[in-house]
Amino acid sequence: MRAQNKLATLVLLVSFFGSISYAKIIDINYVFNNTKISNIKKAEILVSAGEQLLVPAGITYADSLFNTALLKDPGNIKANFYRRMLAPIMVFKGYHRRVKNLTYSKGSKRDIESYNSALEGMPSEGGFKDFLNGESWQKPFKNVSDIQKLMDDAVRKFDLLRLFLKKTSIKQATIPIVHFLNIHEGESNKSFNDVAKLCNVTQLNIGKFEIAPCKYISVEKKVVDNTDLQGLKGITAGMEILFAISSSYNLNGALDVASENSKREDQQKEKLTDKELFKILRNNKKFGKLRNRSHLAVVPDLAGDIYAAVKWYRKLDSKLCKRDHRVYYGSNKEYSWTDDVSVERPNNLLDGVCASPRDENEWLDVSKKVELALSGSFFISEVKRIDYSPKSTVGMVRKKTYKFNVLAPFFNPVNDISVLLPSKFDKCGDADNIGDDPTLLGIFPDGDAQDYSDFENNSYYDQPKSTSCK
Asked: Mean pLDDT across the stretch 146-162?
């Protein structure tokens, strides 16, 4: 499904339309102590104000208002929706300040300059500053473990969002979607930071906010229904998998690698070779040790949600996609689809989302393998490659079959992934094997992971070996 980029867009929502070219004051102080307004109505007012603050510089304030709305009315569906959508982003509030010490101690001169440039020209107060600095109780990161604890929190927030989307039903609702960096003619040199600094939001007091004039933000109405929720559930599951995998095993030692490469960059030297890099990781006794088994255990369930979303979209494929734009290439008139557009849902949040593969026979083959993987079993798959000789323009097709158990690392996680670190290197220091585990954490039950890697990567024959390390 081609919708991964939609999640980042969705969390930047606003409830007014067109370019924001005037200062806007939002004042809801009258709500808090007004006994004549019911809690349900107060929640609706707070949500409406929060929607208007869901521009990039206002999400901290919007998140606070949605949280307050839920205290007034825990059943408010929009407050729940926005709060859950923002939660993974709010995990990173204060990240910029907290990572400063590590950046200065481990980063290159270019890294430090890049870090400092994020604050250049930034307003002395307002939403961006509040988001970058976070809360005073948030301590600076001391090592990779501290950052991985932050990732743990992100996993939890993604999981809560996914579970919310699974149990929520929306027949139809309209939400506004922001388009940030709405660059105008003659301003192609504008960067994210340039625009961010111009589009500030300031909290004047507890219930009063000012949105600065900004021509670089525009918004449009989008419809959300259960089909969109299915897609968002799959996207969220995918994001959760990424964060879960990155925080399941201890990555101490990674900063040592980054620090050494930074020193070499400052000295204008070549970066670490594979051999040097993996030696640093091997010397760190904590690297690769399992730190959170539960993150891995949930991955098969997450993969199941992604698969369910793809099946949902395939079932509605004729309504969701229009595939009539073909680009032909080659003498045999093969073609590829280039435009996927919604047929019946052009105004929906996830418009034009098409499930792949498109060929029905290919889909049946893929779905069979996915279902075997989700059950913890292996499947057999044929792998093809085309070898080309420098002496001929005609390629030779070669085939081999392998057993794959792609979810084995999650059903039966190992306690130490340092077995994946290469142990053999060529004379140039480049890795010459994929580690000491022939099963690659169980993915290759027949123990032929290295053979698969060689078959996939060595796709040329009659090719003279290079004698240079450059």
From this structure: 95
Q: What is the pLDDT of residues 96-132, one digit of tens each?
A: 999 999 999 988 888 898 888 877 767 778 888 899 8
In whole angstroms, how far apart are CA 352 and each of 89, 168, 432?
A: 26, 22, 43
- Tell me, what DSSP letter sits at residue 27? E
Phi-psi category of residue 92: left, alpha or beta, with phi > 0 → left and psi -120 to 50 → alpha: alpha
What 3-state DSSP class applies to 420?
helix
Q: What is the rounded distance in angstroms from the CA atom of residue 407 to the CA atom of residue 410?
A: 5
Q: Which of 65, 90, 89 minimizes the C-alpha distance to 79?
A: 65
Distance CA 374, CA 395 (A): 36
State how far Cα 162 lies from the chain centre.
14
pLDDT band at 1; cut points 50, 70, 90: very low
Q: How many CB atoms lie within 10 A of CB 80?
A: 18
H-helix or E-strand containing 197?
helix 192-198
CB 114 within 8 A of CB 193: no
The residue type found at 419 is: V
